[in-house]
Amino acid sequence: MLGAERRAVSVRASELAELTPGRTGNLSVRREDRFAVTPTGVAYDRIDAGDVPVVDFEGDRIAGELAPSSETPMHTAIYREFGPGAIVHTHSPWSSTLAILHEPIPPVHYMLALAGTTVPVADYATYGTPALAANAVEAMEAADAEACLLANHGLLATGDDLDAALETAVNVEYTARIYCQAKAVGDPVELSPDEMGAVAEKFEGYGQEE
């Protein structure tokens, strides 16, 4: 069941180590109305495809030997509301810094267009709860964004596939870092909504055809 998606989770989970400490991050890949998600509390390099849990949109594990991520309610809510192909959640330091400040990331760099014009902050709720899931959905919906900061917690990023979700997470973290650095020196200058829209259109045709 979801063999390709479970392999993708097991292979790509190690990339979370570059974005988040210990075993605190998680990712998932969807096919139709179920998704493969990292198991809870397992070191990234010890995740085998056969053990990767498969979860349905009711939040029930339907395959896999290990319990799914504690943030499964958030993954489920995001898939049901927005239907992305993959989700990445990290505690990356610069994004988490702004999340602790309850400060959104404004459009100070064009690479943020991968996530939307602004990355909003979802209200705080205890990790792994339906309340946190609802807050993330509300924040992303209000900002028309594909990522959000989770107050006093970390970063949530989505994408059409796992490559896109990871790329968005990396670029949001990069923008969070340079925004914090710029604020320490002076007053950051934001790009206009028109410019961010133009960049988003350019991104749609960026790269080489396969």
Tell me about this structure:
This protein is an alpha+beta fold and 210 residues long. Helix content is 38%, strand content 16%. The protein has helices spanning 3-12, 72-82, 93-101, 130-143, 162-185, 193-204, and strands spanning 26-31, 34-37, 54-56, 61-63, 86-90, 121-122, 147-150, 154-159. A hairpin with a 2-residue loop joins strand 1 and strand 2. The model has no long low-confidence stretch (mean pLDDT 94).
Care to give the gist of this entry?
The protein is α+β, with helices and mostly antiparallel strands. The protein has helices spanning 3-12, 72-82, 93-101, 130-143, 162-185, 193-204, and strands at 26-31, 34-37, 54-56, 61-63, 86-90, 121-122, 147-150, 154-159.
Share in helix: 25-40%
Summed up, the helix count is 6
- Mean pLDDT reading: 94
- Backbone CA Rg: 16 Å
Distance between the termini: 27 Å
Tell me, briefly, the overall form: globular
Strand content: 15-25%
* Number of β-strand runs: 8
Question: Uncertain spans, ≥5 residues at pLDDT below 50?
Answer: none
Main sheet makeup: 8 strands, mixed
